[in-house]
Amino acid sequence: MSIKRKIRWALLAVSLTAPACVQAGQVTVDDLMRLSTVSDVRISPDGKEIAYVVSTPSLETASHEAVLYRVAAEGGTPLRLTYTTRVFNKPLPSPWLRWSPDGSLLSFVAYAGDVPQVMAMSSAGGEPWALTSLKEGVTRYEWSPDGKQIAFIASDSPPPEDEQRKKNKSFVIHVDKGKRPPRLWLQAIPGGAPQALSPADKTVLDFHWSPDGKSLVFAGSDETGFQAPYNSGIYTISSGGSEPRTIVRRPGTNRMPQYSPDGRSIAFISSGGKAGMINAQDLYIVAADGTGGAPHGLTLSREVWINEFTWAPDCRSIFYIPSEQTNDSGEHMFEQAIFRVSLDGAAPQMVTPGPVVNYSLSLSSDGRRIAYRSVGSRTMGDVFVMELPIGRAGKLTEINPQLRNLKLGDLQPVHWKSFDGKEIWGLLLTPPGYQHGQRIPMVVYCHGGPIGGYTYGIFPQFAHIPGQVDPYPVEAMASAGMAILFPMPRGGSGYGIAGFRAIVNRWGEDDYKDIMAGVDAMIAQGIADPERLGVMGASYGGYMTDWIVTQTNRFKAASTAASVSDLTNLYYFSDAGDTIAEYFGLPWEDAASLIQHSAITHVREVSTPLLIQHGENDNRVPLSQAQEFYKALKTLHKTVEFDIYPRGGHVNFEPPLEREYMLRNLEWFKRWLKPDAPPKP
After folding, report:
1. Can you give the pLDDT at residue 178?
2. Residue 450 burial (CB < 10 Å; 0-12/13-18/19+)?
């Protein structure tokens, strides 16, 4: 039986066992909290089996709990493989699924006690066992080609004297001293002792084995933390131990190296010698022996920001997925296709067309099948397999069958002309049963970044991870009778690198006008009620929300999360403060611009009721940003409420807090915008 026919029969069986005549219900926050996410997908070397992990928020354990499954590539009933073993999930599930080279073992990262270690189990099932036992754990690893070793990334153990100082309370943190950057290690399987391979003073970001197992290639940086990937190089090192040999060392990003299957070339992601974050992250190749001259770019004409790729077995092409929508424009900027680019210079070819977003790509050893996670407009994503010779894809899972019994809103691309005639795009979510021409409350959702944007999915800003980290329950808001506009202004994804750079030294200028032009367009189309407008956003979206309420009184309510109100302070106190210097320059060189583009400077102009939400342990946008804005608003007797989320960082990862976050925002906008009763099913 063909794969297509088997999949059709499997789906038919599911449909026949589903409850009949179930009337679709309105979406609630609790409905959203019950949705699951595919966190990783990996096809077996022979292409016959696919392993994947499904994570579900748990209010009881306050974490996203993950379970490992296996399903035949021809289709069938998935087999659950883990029960008592807990897949690593701090802060979110990160199983790092791998098959051993011969396909006999399936490995992943799970807890051994309270520490993540590499675990392995028979591919047929059974009890997993630990392959590593490092004191601080392992989260990234790869099998050697012969299956006799694994390489992994881990930091050195702290020196004994530091441990003693911590016990006797005399330990002092000496800033920028005593760093233990992640290193590359080797360990024989089974039972070998870990051996450090890379230098102790270089941060290892990513690595890959050569096909013969005699060497490894890694991306390394002399920096640590947020800036390390943006100042990195490519190096090779013998698996027997040696000094690293430099393959690529130039300004900017050079990372995620992979040997070609014949070992002659190395593919990697690079900003092309340009320093900083505001660049494309294109796909390059270079000779593995370092003698082939300068790296050659394969995707330069597309200005892609790539986060996943893998070689075809014949070494003549590479499959990749863009993680920011710079590869296309217009109505396609919300899509995230799998592409195939040939080394002969031909233009990249789309493998998975349509309004979908794809992740977690892997190929069988013969290159005939690919497995991946695909997210449609009104889904959370499922496991798919494609027969490459015929280009036919089949869906193997239905992770969230309950979506069929929920009355979902309609999510469609929209566009409008901005103040200067530039065409701006966005997504519009309308309530279930909405009739065009009916004016309803509309909330503008400003995306994070600034380099960021929206895709298709139930959580359009968080299709790549468990969506419940989103503080704004847009599907429940739509069910309550509100429209949601997801604008993609310049500065974010969809307009190429020139679009990224359009807001250098201009935050809150043209991008603000792009958003407001979208509001006007939705009013002109008879959708948005101009008397019931809201605005919300987190991170850079929080900056934009703070900015908007200082520039206009058109919004009846606003909610800002992890928000930036003072750009100067952000440079000094954020773990990513150098980003501010890249956009505006150093505070002591251009203080006037930083002050002028900070919402706190214009706080007296706020008249919109504002809800401020922030995690107490946010290092990206420190809590002081919210405290500063709140203090000023309270002093000025403005309408403002402020919630601090215990243990929360830049994103909330604990399901009970995620639920509270979403409920709070839903009630906030219902309170101020007073949506009408939604249409009945």
Report:
1. 79
2. buried
- pLDDT at residue 12, as a whole number: 31
**Residue 611 β-bridge partners:** 559, 641
Whole-angstrom distance, CA of residue 98 vs CA of residue 96: 6
For residue range 561-597, list pLDDT tens digits in order.
Answer: 999 999 999 999 999 999 999 999 999 998 999 999 9
Cross-strand pairs, 679: none
The pLDDT score that the predictor gives to residue 681 is 47
State how far the Cα of 369 lies from the Cα of 363, in Å rounded to an integer. Answer: 6
CA distance 132 to 114: 14
Residue count of the chain, please give it. 681
Q: Quick one: three-class SS letters along 402-421?
A: HHHHEECCEEEEEEEECCCC
Report how far residue 262's alpha carbon sits from residue 362's, in angstroms, rounded to the nearest whole number.
18
With a cut of 50, which residues of the chain have pLDDT below it? 1-22, 681
Rounded to an integer, what is the distance from CA 595 to the centroid of its chain? 31
Do residues 616 and 644 lie in contact, with contact meaning Cβ atoms separated by under 8 Å?
yes
| Under 8 Å between Cβ of 230 and 249 | no
Q: Give dist(CA 361, CA 209) in Å, integer.
A: 18
d(CA 341, CA 157) in angstroms, rounded, equals 42
Residue 376 half-sphere exposure toward CB, CA atoms < 13 A: 11
- Give the torsion sign (CA, 640, 641, 647, 651): negative
- Torsion angle, alpha carbons of 352, 353, 359, 364, to 10: 0
Radius of gyration of the chain (CA): 25
Which DSSP symbol is given to 189? T
Q: Are 360 and 373 in contact (CB under 8 A)?
A: yes
Structure tokens at 348: 């990249």
DSSP string over 74-130: T----EE--SSSPBP-SSS-----EE-TTSSEEEEEEEETTEEEEEEEETT----EE
Report the run of H or E that residue 444 belongs to, with start and end.
Answer: strand 440-446
Q: What is the pLDDT of residues 334-354, one digit of tens each?
A: 999 999 999 998 889 999 988
Strand order, beta sheet including 423-430: 410-417, 423-430, 483-488, 440-446, 528-538, 557-561, 610-615, 640-645
Helix (H, G, I), strand (E, B) or coil at 164: helix
Residue 472 in 3-state DSSP? Answer: coil
Residue 6 burial (CB < 10 Å; 0-12/13-18/19+)? middle
Burial class (CB in 10 A: 0-12, 13-18, 19+), 350: middle
pLDDT for residue 177: 83
Q: How far apart are CA 535 and CA 512, in angstroms?
A: 12
pLDDT computed for residue 5 by the predictor: 38
Return d(Cα 217, Cα 239) in angstroms, integer.
Answer: 10
Sign of CA dihedral 666, 668, 671, 675: negative
Alpha-carbon span 217 to 58, nearest angstrom: 39
Peptide bond into 313 cis (omega under 30): no
How far is C-alpha 607 from the chain's CA centre?
34
Main-chain dihedrals φ then ψ at residue 2, nearest 5 degrees? -70, 160
pTM exceeds 0.85, yes or no: yes
Q: Report d(CA 549, CA 542) in Å as an integer.
A: 11
Predicted confidence at residue 241, as pLDDT, reads: 84
Provide the pLDDT for residue 327: 59
| Cα 486-488-489 angle, rounded to 5 deg | 130
Main-chain dihedrals φ then ψ at residue 496, nearest 5 degrees = 75, 180
How far is residue 52's CA from residue 399's CA, in Å, rounded to a whole number? 11
